[in-house]
Amino acid sequence: MAAGDSSFESLDEIGNFSDSGSDYEATLTSTKRKKQAVTGPKLPKRPRHKAALRGSSLSSTSSSTPPPPTPPLQQQSRGRSKQASPRPVTRENEGNRGISAKDIYDAVRSGKSAMVTVVDEWLDSYKQSREAGLLVLINFIVQSCGCKGVVSREMLDSMQNAEIISTLTKEFNEESVNYPLCTPGPELRRFKASLCEFTRVLVRSCRNSLIFDEYLFPSLLALLTGLSDSQVRAFRHTSTLLAMKLMTGLVEVAVIVSVQQQTTQRQYDQENSKRASDRASDGLEELRATISQLRENKEEVSSMMNATFRGVFVHRYRDRLPEIRAACIEELGVWLINDPEDFLNDGCMKYLGWTLHDKQSPVRLQCVRALQAVYQEKEFIGRLELFTSRFKERMLGMVLDKDLDVAVEVVNLLLLIQQSTEGGLREEECGHIYPLVYASNRGLASAAGVFLFNKLKNVIDSENQVNGTSGNADLLQILISFYMQSEFHEHGAYLVDSLWGVAKAELRDWETMTTVLLKESGLMYEEEGALVELMICALRQAAQASPPVGRTQSKKLLSMKDKKAQEHDRRRLTMHFIPLLPQLLAKYSADAAIVTLLLKAPLYFNLEMYNSVPRLEKHLDQLLFQLCGIVEKHTAVTVLQACATLFSALCADSYTFSSRSHLSFSQLLDGLTECFSSYLSDLLQGTADDDSVYSAATTLKRIAALSSAKDTTVWKLFDPCLELLKSRVESRDLDKELMVPALKCAAFNLMWAKMNAVNSTPAEEELKRLKKEMRSFCKVCEMCLSLNQTEIRDQAFELLCDLLLLYSQTSVCSAPALQTLVLLPSDSLRSEMAAFLVDYVFSDSDEDELNVEEEMKITLLRRKRNQLAGYCKLVIYGVLDLNAATEVFKHYSKYFKDFGDIIKETVSKSKLISPVQSAKTVCLSLQQLFSEMLTEDHSQQDLSEIRELAKKLAMSFGVDLHRVRKPLVALHMDGIHFAFRKPQEGEERNMNLAFLEILSEFSFKLLRQDRTQLAAYLKSECPSAALSWPSVRMYQCSLEGRSSSKPREKEGGDAASSHDTPAAKRKRTTTAGSVASSARESLLDSLSFPSNLPTPALTSTALRVGAKQKAASGATESDEGSAFTEPESEDDFSTGFTMRKVKPAKQCHLSSSQTGTSLDQRDLNSNLTLLSLIEDGDEEEEEEEEEEPEIDDYESGSDHESEFSLPSTRQTSASVLDELFD
């Protein structure tokens, strides 16, 4: 096909293509397949100028073009088709004695046979009898669709394609909704690959002869076109895939024929240009005949391609099933690459542009990959200018696609556009991609890193050409500028990780980094800080070879080669930084932020090299000297904590140089202790001036920070700190700068003392003294909890949680000799801690009073989460009773957003400790809330909030109702007892009856026998006059909701609320005067639990019925509705083009009464089967949103959240829970 004479004959006419028999019609109208005589000589070829007419006759639409002339036998066969009745579908191919359809299907399904051998065997049978061979191929296609029926020779000769398809539809297997192409598991991939390979080999084997015999491929494509228009999904899916693969083979053949035609034409022109005497007349005539034959072959192939494109692709690229749409788009990408002369035009590219808006991510993914292949070809770029200009905005919006795989491929596509097109992307367009380097998904971030690095390299290369310079310094400079302008200064590790794959060498250029930092006139102050942060992040990446926290990565172990490379990088960076780190610390010793970063560098060193390399040993003394100087110079908590962490690493006993580090640490702490002691007497007497208080406070800060890393008990700082705290609290001279570090010093001293007691065998007197110190510190902290200083109060609470856990019964289980150290909190301390939760954790007062920034709110929330986690640990590990958890449970609903994960985990852990006591604690928390509501103005809204909390707590009992029988019964009995408890003086009678409404939220978890006994217990507790009250009736209805129905223990309980079930009649009570206590005891005693009961499945009757209906109607689900429709106008790229979703036309179906009058009695059952296979148009519209999650679309507007997120610096709930229950 020449470029000027496209095989599609103006694709702009496709929009006017008749939609008869397309997606929206129930009647199965298909192309009338051309029939051939059963026997007789080979028919002469028809004139080639009618190829276009034949192509249109192969499409699935009814055309006004008259059919080509047919031989007499074929006409007779068609005449008989009106009178012949359909023969029953059989399982045998009578006319085929060679390879059978089942043999081909088994070979394809197994995937182990060589497709060339299978195709050769079929070709042998086809050459013997082409009708029988075609019949084998047709039955193979039918079997590949999962259909039970077989096309017989009589059906092939006497029936049209539409009639054959209708007959096959009646024989379709309704037992399963699966068919070979949708079978789950690896079998699907194997079958699909084998089927595509079979099709490819078939076309390749026939491309020189049988493809031009005017029988095999036209007949095959006509049948596939009819099947692709079927409303049975299996037929439509399988036939579309095969048709697209055949089309791909035809495109390859068309390209080969075009090349042969051009070559032969050149030979003819060359021979014809010779003088008449030199020409070879025979050769010219032969070349002319060859050219004519090749032209006819090309017209034949173009006709089949035209019919397939119009009859299958144009309709199925917008099919409802995403797999079909993806298959069409995938093959279109192959056609664009293989035959650009015919396909690489706006008429075909528009389908890719429209599919970028598809609602299913697999389709968008195939579309983007097809575009990547097109943009990779340099010679295609000139033809893509219009497409790029029209759809660039959509591609830029897709970088935030909900499907991360699509987003990654779109970024790669935009990189190709940036590199290959002349104009590339403007800077504001690149701004859509730059922030993705901070995305939490590593694949997307790495793709954005590649884009960013290429952009930076282009800028540097252009500047170097002007200035004549080169090197990594320029790259570092521009990377620093980007990092500062992006304003994500806490995410340097994520930027480095994104660039690590493409710029690994540049980011490991330690020499350039340190040279720039040590220059006197180098970078500006902000640039120095940014470079140091990026350098430390690169050190961590090189030493640990793992992504930063929060960035997802597949769990794979490093190979031996990667481990060796990692160790090599670590030794290299250690050798470089050990001599230079003291110089860097000396230069930036006054800058707290830079020093904090630089102090992290030795943590990534191979510290053993301080001894293994003799010339590096002297640099250890320089590092320790600088470290001590930094401690004496700074008071910032972050700097001091970094120094303490480094001291802890250098003092590890595994290193031979640890004695030198210990000596340096001891000398530093001796000086700090002596300084603090000099101010202590004045502080205790209250005579110290402001300078003395400030000096003492800064010294205590340094000591407290160092105490967190090393044992400081030998300096005996506990008593001075405790005396200082007591004097300050008693005098109400509250200085947070002095008291917070004093609290830390005393607490760390107690922690180290406990650790020393565990690791040694102290005397009994020593243990008693330590317990006395612990009790004294708890009293001081208890007083601090009621102070009006937030920092002091919060620090005291957090230290209490840690110390009470450290001195609990659980911590000494493995050391019975330490039982003396066990200290339980006093009642007053329990009350103060519970009051602290209510006043300062479950309260918004801090945020309401302070007009704080968003970052400050996150910090406050993180502190509250830590405090709540500390309190929950005390409950879980037995320091506090389970009843203490009521202060936590009753805020589960109100503060679910901030603390829901912690409270939920606490409820779950409490059930493991004592299921019954946990259930009673849940009930007690609801009772407390109810009592608080009664003391205030009683409102229905408050009661609704408590009921909502009860619903959330009821769901925590799980689905195994046999396992939670006893806890639930205990909860209900406590609730009933509370509702009918005797009033105290001054209280109204039966004021707690409304609590039964709250209790009813737990009734749906009860088993039938428990409901009956609880109903009897309710009558024994309830006064007879109160039985008719609304609250009592509601609770009775909740108990009786399933008591009269058939037991469903197999299903594991009622998943739905019992309020929806009409109440059954109650049984009369046997004795009116039953005693409440006896009823309670008999109920609890009757609860017996078999040890081997299976976990019941939670199944809803409504869901089960819906599933059955869905299975019955969806065995061969018809979902031919279009996912999106082609615009009416065929203007390829209209300005402001928007995708419109058009409702499918109403389809006319026969009702059951109509079928009885319009159909033969013998075909009644089969037609009813057909109706069950074809979905009603109205049902498609109603179930489209329910059954198929099609709406995966991404809206790029600012109102929609993207699926990726920036890594948060906030402590995640997972990390809190890991620490909570470690």
UniProtKB/TrEMBL annotation:
Keywords: Cell cycle, Cell division, Chromosome, Chromosome partition, Coiled coil, Nucleus. Residues 1-101, 1040-1077, 1109-1222 are annotated as: Disordered. It comes from the Eukaryota. Residues 1175-1196 have a biased composition (Acidic residues). PROSITE patterns: SCD. Residues 277-304 form a coiled coil. One of its GO terms (biological process) is chromosome segregation. Pfam families: HEAT_SCC3-SA (PF24571), SCD (PF21581), STAG (PF08514). GO terms for molecular function: chromatin binding. Belongs to the SCC3 family. This is Cohesin subunit SA. The lineage of its organism: Eukaryota, Metazoa, Chordata, Craniata, Vertebrata.
